[in-house]
Design goal:
about 180 residues, mainly alpha, 10 helices, elongated
Length: about 180
């Protein structure tokens, strides 16, 4: 029997892994569950991803892209005439008005780096990439502080089940941008 050429298979496997984690959590992820979800032979998952960590790295990279893409594509973020705190608040607010399950999935994979060292460089890629984008408008230390605040706010909203508070977020971001927490 000839091998079937399937250039999109790797991508389908990654998308299937994201669906499995979204439905069952990281504990429910296995080559077998992903193969079933992707409707591919088990050998395909192990061919493309020798370990579950490799599969999780690919899934985290894919998942991380959502908010970073919104930042990159925001023409207002690059405009020095746009208030940085306002634009970041707007972007974070839009992110939270989207599919909450997708945000939870992103953070579940992101936080998996606590226990899976193979994921740590990918988590760092996200924070470094967003920091680099923000450093175009401010200095690197302030950019890192902004990323930390965005992460912290996101985690609090997700973990408490609360609502995104745009006014508070905007004020805290503005304080960091101004360089003083006393105002």
């Amino acid at each position: 029997m000839a091998r079937r050429y399937d250039p999109g298979r790797r991508d389908r496997i990654v998308r299937a892994a994201l669906r499995v984690v979204a439905e069952r959590g990281i504990g429910g992820l296995s080559h077998r569950t992903v193969a079933a979800e992707a409707d591919v032979p088990l050998g395909s998952t192990t061919y493309h991803f020798a370990s579950l960590d490799e599969l999780l790295v690919a899934a985290l990279r894919r998942s991380n892209e959502n908010f970073a893409r919104a930042l990159r594509e925001s023409g207002r973020l690059a405009d020095p005439g746009t208030d940085l705190a306002d634009e970041l608040t707007r972007l974070l607010g839009e992110w939270f008005t989207g599919e909450r399950r997708a945000i939870e999935l992103e953070y579940e994979l992101y936080l998996a780096a606590l226990r899976r060292p193979a994921l740590r460089p990918v988590a760092a890629e996200w924070t470094d990439g967003v920091g680099e984008l923000l450093a175009r408008r401010t200095d690197p230390a302030t950019a890192r502080a902004l990323v930390a605040l965005l992460d912290g706010i996101s985690l609090q909203v997700l973990l408490t089940g609360g609502e995104f508070d745009a006014a508070c977020t905007r004020e805290m971001l503005a304080r960091i941008v101004r360089g003083s927490g006393a105002r």
